[in-house]
């Protein structure tokens, strides 16, 4: 018999929904090691018609699923703002992304923005730049995304991995800063 190895990996799609820019990230997790497969944005501002934007979101999510074959999709939940119209548009974008994933038999899990930031940086109030910097360490990429929406999509995928695989250590608890967080999470920075 030949030496055939069974690849035990998970592919996770992360989405930061939006009606102007939708960010996404796709990771592969093999034995707790993260590999960035894809990260980017879909520019929706060039489409004036809101229905056309929703169609583009559906097509992009479906295309990513066909290309990378994830079994799980983590999506950032809408935040509660004061502008009702913006929240309605964001909710529609999120709903279309969720429906597209479900139509492809992909499990969808929703995470609050603070939960994602907490999972990645140890601070639920971290800025987008802090999240992106930590993701560069975790996923070993050097290119700064043109739009932070791409790293937000990636953050959703990485958060889902941490939440479902025991990657977030309860002992990390509160941290006093970057150095403290890194010292308590050495296994996340390899």
Short description:
The protein has 190 residues and is of the alpha/beta class.
**DSSP summary: helix tally:** 6
Mean pLDDT reading:
85
Kindly state the number of beta strands.
Answer: 5
Structural class: alpha/beta
Please outline the major beta sheet: 5 strands, mixed
Overall body shape: globular
Helical residues, percent = 40-55%
Which fold name fills CATH's third level, the topology? Nucleotidyltransferase, domain 5
CATH class call: Alpha Beta
Span of the ends, CA to CA: 35 Å
Write the CATH architecture name: 2-Layer Sandwich
Whole-number radius of gyration? 17 Å
Spatial order of the strands in the main sheet?
3-2-1-4-5
Number of domains: 1
Portion of residues in beta strands equals 15-25%
Low-confidence sequence ranges: 1-6, 168-175
H and E order: EEEHEHEHHHH
Q: What is the CATH superfamily?
A: Ribonuclease H-like superfamily/Ribonuclease H
